[in-house]
Structure of diphosphomevalonate decarboxylase:
Amino acid sequence: MKATSIAPSNIAFIKYWGKKDEILRLPENGSISMNLSNLLTTTTVEFNHTYKSDSITINGIQEPNDGNRAIKHLDRIRKLASLSQKAKVVTINNFPSSTGLSSSSSGFAALTLAGTKAAGLELSEKELSILARQGSGSACRSIPDGFVEWLDGDTSESSYARSLYPTDYWVIADVVAIVSEGKKDISSAEGQKLVNSSPFFSVRRSHMAEKIKKMKEILKEKNFRDFGELLEAEALELHAIMLTSTPSLIYWTPGTFKIMKLVKKWRTEGLSVYFTINTGQDIHLICEKKNIKKIVVKLKDIKEVKNIIVNYPTIGARLNPNHLF
Ligand code: PMV
C-alpha cells in the first residue's frame, strides 16, 4: 500500500537540546513550538514485496542506505506492523535542508504518518508523536496542530507532543531569513551529544521546568512583548551552551549575526520583533501579523539575505491524496 503525508517544520520557542536517553530520544527538558505553514515536507511511502531493498530519495537525490536514519525509522514501522516488505520513499522539501530550518522535524513527521499508513497501521496522534520522536526528537512536535508542547516524560510512553492551542489562537508570524544555503557542518543529532561538556548546562537544566511554565503563562495571556523577550533569551541561552561545549558549536554566520544586531536596533526604533535560531545560520524573526511587511522590506535590503519565507501557525502532519510516484 502507498500513502502520502505533508508535515510542517516547527520553530521552538523553548528549545530541546540534550537527551536523557539517547536511544529513545528522551529530551533533558520539555519544549514549546509552533508549526510553520510554509516550511513543508511531502513524503510518499510504499511497501511492496517486489522491492529488493529500501530506497530513499530526497529532493530527487537517492540517499545512501548505510546508516540511514530514515531506514532505521522504516524498521520501527515494520516492527510495529509485523511487516517484512521493503519500501520506496520519495520526499520533497519546499525549503533548504540542514541550514537551521529543522527539515528533520518535518521529514520524520511526514515519514511517520505516511509510513504507518502505508504499512496498514492506524495510530493515534499520541502514538504517531511517540514514534516520530524516535526518528528525530523535534519531529514529535510536527504531529499535533498549531502551538505545541512536548511533554517532559521519563518514559517513551510519556514523552510526546500535544497541541496547546489551535492554529488560529494567535496570529503571529515567523519570518525566516535564509542567509545562505550552505549546509551546517555538525548536525543537531551530533551537536546535542556534546551538551554535558558545557559548564553551563547544569544551570540550564535547573531552570527549564520554570521556563516552560512561564512560556505557557505568557501564551495564555498573549502578551507579545513578554513572549518575544523570553523566546529570544532562550535562543541565546541555547547558543551559549553550544558555544561553550567542547568542541564548540558555532552555527552563526556573519549574516546571522548582522540580523541579530539589527533586530535589537529595530526594537529601539519601535518595531516589535524578536529572533530565534536553531542549529544553522538561518534566523527566525517572530512578530505580530501587522509588522510582517515592515520586516520583509528591511530584510530585503540586507545583502546576506538570499530568501525570505513568511510562516503562520499551521496544522500538524496530515495525509494527502496526491502521491509523489
Ligand atoms: O530534533 P533535532 O535533533 O533536529 O534537534 C532540534 C534542536 C533544535 O532545533 C536546536 C531545538 C528544537 O527544540 O527544535
Summary: The helical segments are 69-81, 103-118, 125-135, 188-192, 201-221, 224-243, 254-268, 292-300. Residues 12, 15-17, 31, 102, 104-105, 136-138, 188-189, 278-279 surround PMV (CB under 6 Å).
